[in-house]
């Protein structure tokens, strides 16, 4: 069973987080959400606090993020969701940046969506095709081959644009981890309107 | 500012809950999530426990559901999300059934999605157009004018099908509460792929 580590912080876009996590679980991917504390925050507790989403939904993460626990030998996929404040915390974390590089170096998948794509820049990834939320395009278009496709796959780096592209983003991750048949099996019961994502 | 009460229980489909809540907040609707305890559960605490979603995401509700606090004089919209177990708890609650009737009698909106549409049956609503998740169609098609459209508006009752139709469901609620212009303003930054929901 493939395993995914989905990062979350205060200010994470809760639709992007939830759609990705839930769709992967439906595909049989074992998911763990890992809370990235803002710089200077008290991270001494043994259990993570609620992450307050960008639109006020409080989500209890499964674990604290730690560079020792969220490694490519334990997970097949690392996901960085958007939400301006949450993405700033996650993309600004040096341990996250280090892990993004390690996952890609070891051929594991990394997903970034919306403002989460800023982690490609902060991690210093080489120039390659990428997309993001339009609001952060100007911060990425020089360093990357910027695309406006809903989902961009570049090797094992998968990027996407916003809440409205999270279903195709998550289903693309399902297809890469579990195959095209599983993607269809998962999409069917989700009842997409005709001519959308199925 | 319109106000929405979004019900949640253990087993609620977390994408349907989160997309609806978040999209309404983006439109300027004041949202409160209200936890419906399963029958026989201890509801004596003053603050609700987290609701464990159908795919394992734990969400902290804003308040306990109570027939005194979730009334049509306080809210313009009542939402029943899906997820088989959560919908069974919510649709099976006599106080919820009573409130569904009161909201509709007073011309307020009621949204039901996925298995949440079973609340139309348990509340004893009159025969009218309605949709639901295909898995519960057989329980509804005799009592209602069953439709397979992604979103069905019947007076102030709005029904929909599953996670894949939650964006058009939520955007329809935005349009009904706040107008078509607000729907467009909200949909734009969500970056839907061309030819989907915007």
What brief labels describe this structure?
DJ-1 (chains A, B), alpha/beta, seven-stranded mixed β-sheet, homodimer, 11 strands, D-lactate dehydratase (chains A, B), 198 residues, DJ-1/PfpI (chains A, B), 6 helices, Rossmann fold, EC 4.2.1.130 (chains A, B), two-stranded antiparallel sheet
SSE topology sketch:
2 copies of one chain form a homodimer.
Chain A: E1 3-8, H1 14-26, E2 30-35, E3 51-52, E4 58-60, E5 63-64, E6 77-80, H2 84-91, H3 94-105, E7 109-113, H4 118-122, E8 129-130, E9 145-146, E10 151-154, E11 157-160, H5 166-178, H6 180-190
Parallel strand pairs in A: 1-2, 1-6, 2-5, 6-7, 7-11, 8-9
Antiparallel strand pairs in A: 3-4, 10-11
Helix pairs in contact in A: 1-5, 5-6
Domain DJ-1/PfpI (chains A, B): 3-175
EC number (chains A, B): 4.2.1.130
Organism (chains A, B): Phanerochaete sordida
Describe the structure.
The structure is a homodimer of 198-residue chains. With 198 residues, chain A is of the alpha/beta class. Chain A has a single domain (3-190), classed as Class I glutamine amidotransferase (GATase) domain (Rossmann fold, 3-Layer(aba) Sandwich), CATH 3.40.50. Chain A has 6 helices and 11 strands. Chain A has helices at residues 14-26, 84-91, 94-105, 118-122, 166-178, 180-190; strands at 3-8, 30-35, 51-52, 58-60, 63-64, 77-80, 109-113, 129-130, 145-146, 151-154, 157-160. In chain A, the strands form 3 sheets. A 7-stranded mixed β-sheet of chain A has the order 5-2-1-6-7-11-10. The longest helix of chain A is centred in the N-terminal third of the chain and has 13 residues, at 14-26. Chain A is globular. The two termini of chain A are 23 Å apart. The mean pLDDT of chain A is 95. The A-B interface holds A 13-15, 18-19, 21-23, 25-26, 31, 33, 50, 53-60, 133-135, 150, 161-165, 167-168, 187, 189-193, 195-198 and B 13-15, 18-19, 21-23, 25-26, 31, 33, 50, 53-60, 133-135, 150, 161-165, 167-168, 187, 189-193, 195-198. β4 (58-60) of chain A pairs antiparallel with β4 of chain B, so a sheet runs across the interface. Chains A, B: This is D-lactate dehydratase. Chains A, B: Pfam families: DJ-1_PfpI.
């Amino acid at each position: 069973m493939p395993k995914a580590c989905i990062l979350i912080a205060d200010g994470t876009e809760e639709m992007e987080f939830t759609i990705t996590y839930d769709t992967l679980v439906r595909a049989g991917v074992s998911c763990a959400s890992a809370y990235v504390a803002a710089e200077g925050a008290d991270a001494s507790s043994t259990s993570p606090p609620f992450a307050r989403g960008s639109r006020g939904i409080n989500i209890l993460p499964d674990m604290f993020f730690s560079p020792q626990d969220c490694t490519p030998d334990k997970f097949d996929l690392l996901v960085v969701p958007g939400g301006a404040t949450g993405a700033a915390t996650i993309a600004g974390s040096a341990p996250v940046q280090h892990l993004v590089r390690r996952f890609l170096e070891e051929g594991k998948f990394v997903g970034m969506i919306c403002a989460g794509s800023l982690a490609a820049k902060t991690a210093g990834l080489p120039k390659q095709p990428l997309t993001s939320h339009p609001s952060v395009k100007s911060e990425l278009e020089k360093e990357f081959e910027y695309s406006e496709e809903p989902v961009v796959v570049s090797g094992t780096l998968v990027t996407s644009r916003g809440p409205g592209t999270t279903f195709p983003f998550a289903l693309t991750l399902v297809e890469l981890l579990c195959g095209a048949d599983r993607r269809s099996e998962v999409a069917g019961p989700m009842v997409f309107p005709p001519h959308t994502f199925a």
